TrEMBL record:
This is Class B sortase. The chain crosses the membrane at residues 60-78. It comes from the Bacteria. Signal peptide: none annotated. One of its GO terms (molecular function) is hydrolase activity. Gene3D superfamilies: Sortase. The lineage of its organism: Bacteria, Bacillati, Bacillota, Clostridia, Eubacteriales.
């Protein structure tokens, strides 16, 4: 009996081991034939018709997402390339426009004003004897009275004698009007790319998307807020885009830097046929919805003085200039900082007139 029990125990153990081996083989087979759905392994054979349909939809959606991502990448690359080409085209146009005001020793300009921008050879700015550097240096040493006195001495490089192979920049308002009849003047900041004509339209939208040649252009142009009294009013607002390539009013952002403020205390502003030095007295950031800053007219002198006091106190840099009065003509340059209504502002008052 004892022998039979031992043999029976051995047979049972052998049977159990055999079953374990078969189960392991079955598990391995199931793993090979399984698929993952929503993080769970499921046998393909055990998938219900509904689950099979879900798997097909999942794979189709994944494929479409990959295709959409590829299309988005191609579109982004195209947009960047198009923007770059537009920037370069805009740069060439304004360089050629600047060429219209460059004269040699005989008084010949670099291009015919009636020819427009196309086909004109752009001059390198280093070839031009910039009128600003000497004028600004001279004016910074004068007393900042702000009165419109005429500076007729020869300190301005526009009035210096120059050799036959040199060139100088001479503002020609009549030529600018032939090019664009909405031209009102020109703005220059020495040592920067801010060298652009100023325009005014019947609304503020047009020159947001049109260049100096009135052709559609995302860079737009420098323009006057039509709601103000213009460059001869008490306070005029000028707008320009903050372009990624450094053009238009991008360098207005540099007035956040103290060293830049110190090196650039004045602008050259051409209004009609006249040339003035404007002195910066306040730079700060503000909101485009701030009606206390963006005012388009003043009821009286007291109202104007309150505005002057307000913007003067906001300046992030103390300029070596006097505080303007209600007798001054003021220009406020505005450019966007971001898409949330933040703006960088530069306020300046009219100083002396320069005779070129």
């Amino acid at each position: 009996m004892k022998t039979n029990k031992k043999e029976l125990g051995k047979e049972q153990n052998t049977k159990i081991e055999s079953e374990k081996t078969e189960n392991n083989k079955s598990i391995e087979t199931d793993e090979k034939n399984s698929t993952t759905i929503e993080g769970k392994k499921t046998s393909l054979d055990d998938l219900s018709p509904k689950s099979k349909k879900f798997a097909k939809i999942y794979n189709a959606v994944r494929f479409l997402v990959i295709i959409a991502a590829g299309v988005a990448l191609i579109y982004a690359s195209y947009s960047l390339t198009e923007s770059y080409l537009n920037y370069k085209d805009d740069e060439k146009k304004y360089a050629s426009l600047n060429d219209m005001f460059v004269q040699d020793a005989k008084g010949n300009t670099g291009s015919d004003s009636s020819a427009g921008l196309n086909g004109n050879k752009a001059l390198n700015n280093s070839e031009v004897s910039d009128s600003n550097s000497t004028a600004n240096s001279t004016n910074s040493n004068t007393s900042n009275t702000g009165s419109s006195t005429t500076s007729s001495n020869s300190s301005s490089s526009d009035t210096l004698n120059y050799s036959a192979d040199s060139k100088k920049w001479v503002w020609n308002y009549d030529a600018m009007l032939k090019y664009n009849d909405e031209a009102k003047g020109y703005i220059k900041l020495d040592g920067t790319r801010i060298q652009y004509p100023i325009f005014e339209h019947s609304d503020n939208k047009y020159y947001l998307k049109h260049g100096a040649d009135k052709i559609y252009n995302g860079a737009g142009a420098i323009f006057i807020d039509y709601r103000t009294a213009g460059l001869e009013g008490d306070m005029c607002i000028l707008y320009g885009h903050n372009m990624l390539d450094g053009s238009m009013f991008k360098e207005i952002m540099n007035f956040r830097d103290k060293d830049f403020c110190k090196k650039h205390p004045t602008f050259d502003i051409y209004i009609g046929r006249k040339h003035y030095i404007y002195y910066v007295f306040s730079v700060f950031s503000g909101k485009d919805v701030d009606e206390k800053i963006y005012q388009y007219g003043f009821e009286n002198k007291s109202d104007f003085q309150s505005w002057i006091d307000r913007v003067y106190s906001k300046s992030t840099y103390k300029f070596d200039t006097r505080k303007p009065t209600t007798d001054d003509k003021i220009i406020m340059c505005s450019t966007c900082v971001d898409d949330y209504g933040n703006r960088q502002l530069v306020c300046m008052y009219r100083g002396e007139e320069v005779v070129d």
